[in-house]
Design brief:
The complex is a heterodimer. Chain A is mainly β. Chain A is built from no helices and twelve strands. Chain B is mainly β. Chain B contains no helices and eleven strands. In chain B, the strands form two sheets. In chain B, strands 2, 4, 5, 6, 9, 10 and 11 form a seven-stranded mixed sheet that branches. Chain B has a four-stranded antiparallel sheet with strand order 1-3-8-7, with no helix packed on it. In chain B, strand 4 and strand 5 form a beta hairpin. Chains A and B meet through strand 5 and strand 6 of A and strand 5 and strand 10 of B.
Chain lengths: 113, 115
């Protein structure tokens, strides 16, 4: 079946540290891949996306590269800020059949000043 | 630009009570969805709609009903609430079917507690 696995949290970092949140997927066909972010008390919002292999999505200093050979879409940021504290969800969406985005369980990030 | 608006934000029900969650979007999106979010489980799709007057079951539809009488509104109903329905509920919409060029837009959620 189709699924998304992301690293368990919480992840705790100091301000200006390097961030990596691992995400791997299993899918039939050719999915689009997403990272959504959920700030406290809010709904999810799209952070970045990639629609085909080797595409790099980027936004607000975050990056992720669609790696078909390793079925991965790891999220990275070179220097985190306190304001990046949130829950991050990796997700895939298949372009054929159904109307369903499959979400990972989410990874909570705490950034300390 | 309001985006996706959910009401209420919080609600406490007793077992067996009923309620309706309201969702409204002002982006003229065709597709709307209801998800529930539970700790460690990500988001799970309850029901969705591909257009006005249509509804379909998602991954966890039991115990819920939905209606889409107007394009901008999507209602989620609980006829007889159970403690297992304690969760945070999110409404979302997308311009067309979910995919790379049509990401989801979420409301801020409704926290429901069933005692």
């Amino acid at each position: 079946g189709n699924s998304v696995t992301q690293m368990e949290g919480p992840v705790t970092l100091s301000e200006e540290a390097f961030l990596t949140i691992n995400c791997t997927y299993t899918a039939t066909g050719y999915p689009s891949l997403f990272w959504y972010v959920q700030y406290p008390g809010e709904g999810l919002q799209l952070l970045l996306k990639a629609t085909k292999a080797d595409d790099k999505g980027s936004n607000k200093g975050f990056e992720a590269t669609y790696r078909k050979e390793t079925t991965s879409f790891h999220l990275e940021k070179g220097s985190v800020q306190v304001s990046d504290s949130a829950v991050y969800f990796c997700a895939l969406s298949l372009n054929t059949g159904g109307f369903k985005t499959i979400f990972g369980a989410g990874t909570r990030l705490f950034v300390k000043a | 630009n309001a985006g996706v608006t959910q009401t209420p934000k919080f609600r406490v029900l007793k077992t067996g009570q009923s309620m309706t969650l309201l969702c409204a979007q002002d982006m003229n999106h065709e597709y709307m969805y209801w998800y529930r979010q539970d700790p460690g489980m990500g988001l799970r799709l309850i029901h969705y709609s591909v257009g006005e007057g249509t509804t379909a079951k998602g991954e966890v539809p039991d115990g819920y009903n939905v209606s889409r009488l107007k394009k901008q509104n999507f209602l989620l109903g609980l006829e007889s609430a159970a403690p297992s329905q304690t969760s945070v509920y999110f409404c979302a919409s997308s311009l067309i079917g979910q995919g790379g060029n049509s990401p989801l837009h979420f409301g801020n959620g409704t926290r429901l507690t069933v005692t």
